[in-house]
Amino acid sequence: MKFLIVDDDFDSRRLVQKILHPFGYVDIATDGEEGVEAFRTALKDGEPYNLITLDILMPNIDGQQALREIREIEKEMGVAPENAVKVIMISGLDDSKELHDAFFLGEATSYIVKPIRRQLLLDEIATLGISLDQAVA
Fold first, then answer.
1. What is this structure's pTM?
2. Relative to the CA of 33, which of 5, 62, 70, 112 has its CA 20 to 30 Å away?
3. What is the pLDDT of residues 56-81, one digit of tens each?
4. C-alpha–C-alpha distance, residues 126 and 116, integer Å
5. Contact yes or no for 29/38 (Cβ under 8 A)
6. How many CB atoms within 10 Å of residue 121?
7. What distance, in Å, lies between the first and last C-alpha atoms of the chain?
């Protein structure tokens, strides 16, 4: 299992990394630009991510723009829609416009409002059909 956490907030990144680490390999990006590049590289290398958590409000490229770019890269590289990476948008805002944009403009898979809680994140991942098994150390 391979995860990408894209968030400019250190504490949020650390928390999500701590939650996901037992289930697989976790990469981190500190803004949308880094996240898009990490996604592109992983796809080119034939090692795509199973799940991306993507903060909405970030410097350089925000989460909404990063998600649109990720979906564009998938189209360019011929990724079938059913094989598109699952993306959970994470935000400190419970904002209906952001929610609308994430789902309808960026094809987000899910949306969670901060503060991030372990069980809520794990339940959301399970709802997306991703089976989390403890990684063997």
1. 0.89
2. 112
3. 888 889 888 999 999 999 999 999 99
4. 16
5. yes
6. 19
7. 13
